[in-house]
Amino acid sequence: MAHLDVIDLSKEFQGEDGPIVAVEEMNLSIEKGEFIVLVGPSGCGKSTTLRCLAGLESPTEGDIQLNDRSVVDSPPMDRDMAMVFQNYALYPHMTARENMSFGLKMTTELSDEAIDQKVIEVAEMMGIKDLLGKKPSDISGGQQQRVALGRAIVREPEVFLMDEPLSNLDAKLRTEMRTELQNLQQTLDVTTIYVTHDQTEAMTMSDRIVILNKGKVQQVGTPLECYHEPTNRFVAGFIGSPSMNFFNVKLDGRTLVHPEFKYQISDSLFTELQEGNEFTLGIRPEDIKLTSQSTENSIPISVNVIEPMGDISYIYFDIGDNHVTASVSGEIQIQENTEVNILFPEEQLHLFDAQTGKAVY
Ligand code: ATP
Fold this sequence. Notes:
Blueprint: E1 4-15, E2 18-30, E3 35-39, H1 46-54, E4 61-66, E5 69-70, E6 81-84, H2 96-107, H3 112-126, H4 141-154, E7 159-163, H5 171-188, E8 191-196, H6 199-205, E9 208-213, E10 216-221, H7 223-228, H8 233-238, E11 245-252, E12 255-258, E13 261-264, H9 267-272, E14 278-283, E15 289-291, E16 299-308, E17 312-319, E18 322-329, E19 339-343, E20 350-353
Parallel strand pairs: 3-8, 3-9, 6-7, 7-8
Antiparallel strand pairs: 1-2, 1-4, 4-5, 9-10, 11-12, 11-14, 12-13, 14-20, 15-19, 16-17, 16-19, 17-18
Helix pairs in contact: 2-3, 2-4, 3-4
Bound molecules: adenosine-5'-triphosphate (ATP).
């Protein structure tokens, strides 16, 4: 067994129009010290999963085990997990010092002096020692979040549970805190489950990402695995910005046929496509190549819009009904409304079963 195991976890709510399945048969094995990010679109079940781990919701089915011990029936305070919320959830009438020491006072036998010593140590580490006497209303959002993190750290839990902890901060502070949180997590080596809908946070902070959609785990893997080897079309479209481009194609002999183009595939790719003949072809913007001449599999297009970003430029164009984005070197000189040829290198193609969305190549 791993450090933290989520076993066949399901959570159903009673909605006005019937049951809502927020989490469905989730299984996760998380090792000690891992930084796991739960990511997915709004309503996919991220917060519910975290709240079940924290003990703020009871699962409808399944088990949660920490160090091989089931915690599903334990109250939040007895789980050895500390939660950090998006809105900080500090007690407004307490000072930062009181907020940070409150949990320890409730759950340990430590003396007031020992607790105060711990609070000071953590406050020093978090750079908030000078704020200990202040109330939440007298400090900034970023400082409040540090106090909230400090409150979780002083408890020395086995697991940190973080629900979008940076989303109320402005963009610059968010980027700074992202790095700081990562460093802190590595130093403390505490298993962390972090919820976000921001895929940049997911990609940059995590050891492994758990991608959820409609309550179901779609893929669990390192950021690069999820990026390069998405298991299905949903993951392929969710991870990566700008998103992967998709085209509906049919296989005819060794040709993938789209209303606007034909694509000859190699023998080796052909042998991998054992079943079905309707696919979704996927290609990431950065994998689309521009060619000066027309060659086999090249597609003539007319550039609608060019967006120079400095080192790269985004090029927008249409292929039939598909709006396509390509990302090319910023040094390439190209004008809007000109015709160019593009190429999808076969090694960079992704193919998904048109019905199930499962990756087949
Ligand atoms: P967001 O990113 O918007 O916070 P999320 O991925 O965290 O979304 P959840 O908040 O876990 O998603 O919600 C999952 C589903 O469960 C949604 O359909 C939501 O409406 C529903 N849900 C969550 N909490 C409750 C509740 N207390 N009662 C009824 N339905 C709920």
